[in-house]
Amino acid sequence: MRIGTIGAGTIAQALARHAIRHGHEVVLSNSRGPASLSSLVADLGPLAAAGTPAQAAAADLVVLAVGWPRIPDAVAGLPPLDGTVVIDATNQFASPPPEPRIADLGDLTGSEYVASLLPGARVVKAFNALYAQYIAPDPRHEAGRQVLFLAGDDAGAKDTVKRLTSQFGFAPVDLGPLREGGRLIQLSGPLSALHVLKQD
Q1: Other beta carbons less than 10 A from residue 136's beta carbon
Q2: What pTM value is reported for the model?
Q3: Residues contacting 4, CB < 8 A, separation 6+
Q4: Helix 10-21 to helix 155-168 angle, to the nearest 10 degrees?
Q5: Distances from the Cα of 19 to the Cα of 97, 109, 141, angstroms
Q6: Tens-digit pLDDT profile for residues 10-47
Q7: Between β-strands 61-64 and 48-50, what pairing exists: parallel, antiparallel or unpaired?
Q8: What region holds the Pyrroline-5-carboxylate reductase catalytic N-terminal domain (predicted)?
Q9: Three-state secondary structure call for residue 33
Q10: In Å, how far are 25, 45, 140, 143 from 78, measured between CA atoms?
Q11: Mean of the pLDDT values across residues 169-198?
Q12: Of 15, 29, 40, 112, which has the fewest CB atoms closer than 10 Å, so is most exposed?
C-alpha cells in the first residue's frame, strides 16, 4: 500500500515507521515543503519520500495529522478524494496544552467536521486517543496488544484500517459511526487517552 501523510510530526512519523517496517511506501508532507523533510526521509529509508500535500493525498490511504487550527489550510487545494480512506488522527484543540482549550463544534464531532472539509473521502477516526509514546513502539506487549479505538461511517474503510493496523500489531476496536463512536474517543470523551491492552 502507498500511504500519504498530511503533516509530518510525531504521530505521522510513528505511523510512517510502522508502515515502512511492513513494506509499505510512505509519502510525507507538511506546510514547509518537501525540502524540509529531506533528513527525515533519509532516516526512514528507501520506502519513504517527501512530497506536497497534494502528492501525499494521491496515495491509497491518507493520514491527517496536523494541529487542529491548521486543518483548513492543510486540506485546502487537495485533489478530489473520492473514495480515498483518510485516517483522521487529529484532536480538536483550539489551543494546545499546557493551557488546552477544546474547540466548540456545536453538535458535530471532530471527525464529522473534518469529513465536511474532505468531500468524497472515507474518514476513519483513529490514533487520536493515544499519546504518541504509545503509538511509536511495537504495540505488541507481553500482556497483550495495544488497543486502537476507531470509528467511521464506511464499513469498507474501517476494514482497511483494521487490516493495516492489525498488521502493525495493534488490536483495533470498532466503536461504530463517526457521530457515536467519534464522540467516545475525541477530547473529553470517556475513551480519550485510555490506554488498554487486549489479551490474546
Answers
A1: 16
A2: 0.96
A3: 26, 27, 28, 29, 51, 55, 56, 57, 58, 59, 61, 62, 63
A4: 80
A5: 29, 28, 19
A6: 999 999 999 999 999 999 999 999 999 999 999 999 99
A7: unpaired
A8: 2-91
A9: coil
A10: 20, 26, 35, 42
A11: 96
A12: 40
